[in-house]
Design goal:
This protein is mainly alpha-helical. It has ten helices and two strands, in the order αββααααααααα. It has a two-stranded antiparallel ribbon. A hairpin with a 2-residue loop joins β1 and β2. The chain is elongated. The termini are far apart.
């Protein structure tokens, strides 16, 4: 109540809103790091649950950014695969907007989430993530990184068609 009386925040329905970014930043800086991670994880998870699958692309950046900020709380292969897929989707949306650096960041996170046996257990996802990462690194003029990813894809590709597609 005192924050409302001091005109720092206001109540809109059941949401509190800060009047100034500086106040919000100061309040956020006071939250311990571990609590921030948990908060971002909960926010990302809740928004993901409440978002209809056909509308997910509209909120993909918000959801993925929240979950990535709480990535240490991701547990189990299923959750890692789910977040890898969401990062791939965010990367593809970034790439369409020619935001190749952002796309590369999402793809690096996605690659880090894939289990080491991903080429056997989740081939399509592993192939898509690596192929997109290779293309984005190339588009960012990071040719040596693109070549490293290319080598991984060629080594793990199941078919000559998949190998040809990355050439």
């Amino acid at each position: 109540n005192s924050a409302i009386q001091e005109d720092m925040i206001s109540l809109h329905g059941n949401l509190y809103k800060f009047h100034h970014d500086r106040i919000q930043e100061a309040a956020y800086s006071m939250i311990p790091e571990k609590e921030k991670e948990a908060m971002h994880y909960r926010i990302g998870t809740n928004v993901l649950k409440k978002t209809d699958s056909k509308n997910i692309n509209e909120k993909i950046f918000y959801i993925v950014d929240q979950l990535n900020r709480g990535i240490k709380l991701i547990s189990g292969t299923d959750e890692e695969i789910m977040l890898a897929k969401l990062n791939l989707q965010a990367a593809q949306k970034s790439k369409k907007s020619t935001a190749y650096a952002s796309a590369s960041s999402y793809l690096k996170i996605a690659m880090g989430l894939l289990p080491e046996y991903c080429w056997r257990s989740h081939y399509e996802l592993a192939y898509s993530v690596h192929k997109e990462a290779m293309e984005c690194e190339y588009l960012n003029l990071n040719f040596s990184e693109a070549e490293k990813i290319f080598d991984v894809v060629v080594k793990n590709a199941k078919s000559n068609i998949d190998k040809a597609n990355v050439h």
